[in-house]
Amino acid sequence: MPFLKPAAGKPGDGPEQRTLLDAARRGHHDAFQRLAEPYRRELQLHCYRMLGSFHDAEDLVQETLLRAWRGLGAFEPRSPGSFRGWLYRIATNACLNALAGRGRASRVLPEELSPPADRMPQAGPATDVPWLEPFPDTALAGIADTAPGPDSRYELREAVRLAFIAAIQHLPPRQRAALLLQDVMGWSAVETAELLGRTVASVNSALQRARATLAKRFPAGRPRTRPVPAIRQRALLASYVRAWEGADLDGFAALLREDSTLSMPPWREWYRGAEAIVAFCGWTVRPGGSGAFRLVPAGANRQPAYAFYRRGPDGPEWRAHSIQVLTLDGDAIAAMTSFVTPRLFGPFGLPDVLTG
């Protein structure tokens, strides 16, 4: 199998890996962990891109490692990086099986289901919709310089942004896999075909169809926003935090792009335009008051993000409310995606309650 070379700092097919592999085949689980653990985070990111869910990705990585442990006797290291490629084969096929078992193969954001709302939410959260989830930046540590191959078309920052993850969810699963393996990971058509058990012609065809679908969503070839210099970005974000924590609607409005959007999965309603967003926020917080929220930085999808804590009515505690991912465009905020799912605080390493 002509899989990619092993990532830097990870065991290759030299004496170290052969020694660990021999020990693992004799039943030494610690040796297997030393072989497989260095790849856990990049496998988790791969599964997240395939599935659109951090929690599902965690489950599938566990399943991948369990399958690898049980099937280790059948693995034959025939080329540099073949152990890494073998793990990706197992992970990708586990994801494809999981997607085949779903009633719906894509996870979505509210703006993909309906036009923007012109009134306050009329119903509760839509718990029957498979919503997209954010990915903590802390889980990307150690991946940036090792996962992409030399032929990748996307940088890590682009290929983990929320808009990109949302877009590829609309690809059929095998097209999604082909695009991720070739355009994101930088694998060759031969490597991708071997991994997927398909012909080179079929994976190239799947890739071309996937690229055509993405081109409709991103005519420039990928999600585009104007970069923000670091100093100005810090100032913008500081103003954003002050506006939310101080319930300063005028200050908040001044930070928004005129056509900015706000969505709040699992609520179906979403809002477009500064006026509509400010009207919604005025319904949510108390203008001129002490503020209903406290914000804690929590990077997600290589974008600015904050954990929102809301004060309870009966005490001084601030309780987990949502993880909000921001899309910046120049000196303004282009989009706010608030994942109103307190169980996401755990993966971000955040407590459920703040005191004081």
Task: Tell me what the structure shows.
The protein contains 13 helices and 7 strands. By secondary structure, it is of the alpha+beta class. Strands 1, 2, 3, 4, 5, 6 and 7 form a 7-stranded mixed beta sheet that branches. Helix 9 (189-196) crosses helix 10 (200-217). The longest helix has 19 residues, at 82-100. The N and C termini lie far apart (57 Å). 38% of the residues are buried.
State the end-to-end CA separation: 57 Å
What is the CA-atom radius of gyration, in angstroms? 22 Å
What's the total helix number?
Answer: 13
Query: What portion of residues belong to β-strands?
Result: 5-15%
Category from helices, strands and their pairing = alpha+beta
Largest sheet composition: 7 strands, mixed
Output the helix-strand order: HHHHHHHHHHHHEEHEEEEE
The rough form would be described as globular
Give the number of DSSP strands.
7
Nearest-integer average pLDDT: 87
Unreliable segments of 5+ consecutive residues: 1-9
Range of helix content: 40-55%
